[in-house]
Give the backbone structure.
Amino acid sequence: MPRRPPAPTGPEAAPEAHEGEDGDLVAGEPSVVRETVRVGVARLENLMAVVSELVLVRNQLLEISRRGNDASFKAPIQRLSQITGELQDGVMRTRMQPLSGAWVKLSRVVRDIAKELGKDIRIRTEGADTEIDRQILDVVKDCIVHLVRNAADHGIESAEERTALGKPRTGSILLKASQQAGHILLEVTDDGRGIDIARLRSRAAARGVRSAATLAAMNDVDVARLIFEPGFSTAQRVTSLSGRGMGLDAVRTGIVQLGGSADLINRPGQGLTILIKLPLTLAIAPVLILEAGGQRYALPQIVIAELVKAQPGTDTRIEILGGTPTLRMRDTLLPLVDLVAEFGLDACAMPTARLVVVCHAGASRFGILVDAVHQTEETVVKPLPSKLKSISYFSGATILGDGSVVLILEASTFAAIARVGGEVAETPAEARPVQRGPEKTALLVYRAGVGRARVVPLPAISRLEEFDTARIDHTPSGYLIQYYDRLTRLVPGGSGFALQPSGEPQPTLMFSHGGRTVGLLVDEVIDVVEHVLQIDVAVQEPGYLGSAIVNGEVMDVLDVGALFGDATDGETAQGQGLLLITASDFFKAVLVPLLQTEGYQVQTAADVGEARRLAQAHPPAGVVLDLDAAAEDMLALAAELQDGGLATRLVGIATSRNRGLVERAMAAGLADVVGKFDRRALIAGLKRRPAERELAA
Amino acid sequence: MMQAIQGLAVDSDAIPMAQFVTLRLNGQLAGLPIEQVRDVFVLKQITPVPQADPAVLGLVNMRGRIIPVLSLAVLLGLDPGEPAARRMAVSVDVKGEIYGVQIDNIGDVLTLPLSGSEDLPGLVHSVWKTHARRVHKLDHELMIELDLASLLASPLTHAANPIGENR
């Protein structure tokens, strides 16, 4: 740690280096023109306001030129537009300051805490020269100090504890900033203890942050995100910088008010990373124009994750859950806010085919139901008149290119309305593998009984539950529980397993297969990791597919099929080759572990040519074809493989099973065409004998 | 679309005079002191604000400024009636913030002697009374002088809170 706080590296500091202590210039050299000027902030703000107005006028001109047909106007207006953009960019840059301004005092903060608590902590920074709008910097400063304080105080263990754990004596905090497309990403990472999910769950239940049932259904990632919620703040708000244990909710609130978002990556026992996403500037925000009930609204693009069209009968549809619309998308559930209903715009019937804007505000994800989505615009955000400030639906208003006023939706309010937190097994969009190469799979790491940690592919799990041990019956034939009015078998997750002491929640992984549900009793759920699943079958134990190396540790991979024992129809897929043909990495990530847990040795091909080569080299027992793209080529390949005797069991998967497609697939000899997420139908289709197919067809 | 009324010459006789923008509300003649009125303009393209007070008609773009437009009738607790085909509004500056106040029947600007006015009699409807300054005696009828600044400075009765009360 440096003895003194690092010298400021702001714009004022740099030019001073040209001159000596006494300001003398070296004789004979032409006098050095100072390369910076000091400009009052007020003057810059003024300039920015003028540029903002210019942007509006530019937008109006663009709108007029879009409508009109006068070609002689178009070229100069395009040029004007471009120059305005450059000017806006330039003025914005002059308002920017390096983030280092926010963390000059951090090393002292950390040193003070370290001394006070008897810890050994080192802080490192990366990307200190990343620049950000000074208005944002002012707010973010306090947030960064708080996050670092939090990491030093709650994250990093004492030196003794660290030594006992085999960690380096000195704890480290890494503060990293980087500029990404249109926003700034800030990361505060510590190598401390991370979040103890089990403890957090029980604390959340005790404090009534969520109901026990909701908590049980939430995955660990979502549970960890609860630390951003108000219920967990124990003391003061942001005002008191000296107060320890104050809520991260205050930090999150500050960030969200700036139009940013906060998230975290928890590595229990190894540390915690808080991720903060911030807009580059507050003055001009790219927004998406939405329409609901005949009115237009603007939504800041920074909160938008994706746009989806919900249609009945597809895997993206709206279902009514307890009277409120819920988006069912790719097997996840997302709470929805219907703008029309919320604003009382129109008493329309429950929506069926509608557009959903999927948003993330802070740590929560939810959807906003709208009638239409229009263009995106760069807008100058204006505050609401004071008489309307109490309406928390809106963060401001803006004037569009056509001169009309639209209200800007406040995402955090809609998140609160959607009561987010109950969504299940959602993989964040960012985490979805997009790169080619070995497929990564979301794996749930758990511990049960004696022996090493075990893993199970996350998509195989239907729910995570925490049962009251008093509800579990211990019968001679095993553990049983009344689960949704049905007696359900609970299987100990490993030898030497014992139920949690009474009163403690019993973590249980629930699996559903063929209409039956089985629970796996475990001691604790450790983590969810993204990892390449490579199963080594050499050291196979009963009930396990084999072992795999996950994060450098050897772990046993649960055989989900074995859990159901006699549920499988005697036929085992053990070791059978299976070829999955899909260009979508996402579906590979979902299907490969599923098929692996069924015992198949899965090979994947991205296109027909690759599939043909693989099938010729190793004729597979079964083939799964993705019919969403190039369906004709896929079906031709299917016929070719069957004619060549290279494969006998073929199943197509498709997002929507329209009749024509199914008929053509049947004609090509496929056993079935199933929905992309209908794992039961897929497995059943693969197990169906060809003779049965003849009969069924 | 906007006509400025400012800058009309005031008679500088010995008698103190005042100018008023006149309007009719539910048949009652009323006057707004001209120094409170910045502009008179035709209302076009109002953006409604969901869940706002009923008095708030919406937001309009006034020369690049976003201002709220309120209904004078609703503010006074009167029946707003059917909206007129051509909706007019005046803009008012209250402590640096500009408001639009929608008024359907805007009449002439009157120059009246201050001596022709007196305090409001106690019989008038209470809302009128709170925001009325004086009553002016015209030849044919009486005109209530309204204090728009006081009317707009008082808080709106209803404020929507989407998370707090309804859920």
Notes: Chain A has five domains: 44-94, 98-279, 284-417, 435-567, 577-696. The first strand of chain A starts at residue 96 and ends at 98.
